[in-house]
Write a structure and sequence with these properties.
This protein has 2 helices and 5 strands; from the N terminus they run E-H-E-E-H-E-E. The longest helix has 6 residues.
């Protein structure tokens, strides 16, 4: 497990965090803000998890890319697996969370708790 510090507090050092785990070891990288993911070198974060975006918090029906947070705070709208985001070989899942930011409301953006089931490859030494 690799934890990355706060992006907003300028305490995220993704390259330093990832360097603490040998490249031959499996890695799960956790961070609050998905923007930290962009600084990870290619093939260093095969599974990364972030939050921060609240799934947009308020979404208008039939407009999946529109969200209050994207407009009001210029936050990226990310929810679920993020295709084409970050360096090659890295994969990011963004959880929409259970809370909110500023406005105590969620509309068309239900809370989420994600359960990952990890399975081995069958290669045991």
């Amino acid at each position: 497990m690799v934890g990355i510090g706060s992006h907003l507090a300028n305490k995220d050092k993704p390259k330093d965090a990832i360097a603490q785990v040998p490249s031959t070891n499996p890695r799960i990288v956790m961070m609050h803000n998905p923007k930290s993911f962009l600084a990870l070198p290619a093939n260093t974060a095969p599974v990364a998890v972030a939050g921060h975006t609240h799934g947009g918090q308020i979404r208008l029906p039939f407009t999946p890319q529109w969200s209050w947070l994207a407009l009001a705070k210029n936050w990226e709208h990310v929810d679920g697996w993020s295709d084409g985001y970050g360096a090659s070989g890295n994969q990011l899942y963004v959880n929409r969370g259970i809370g909110f930011s500023d406005l105590p409301i969620r509309l068309n953006c239900p809370p989420e708790v994600t359960l990952f089931t990890l399975q081995g490859t069958g290669n045991r030494e």
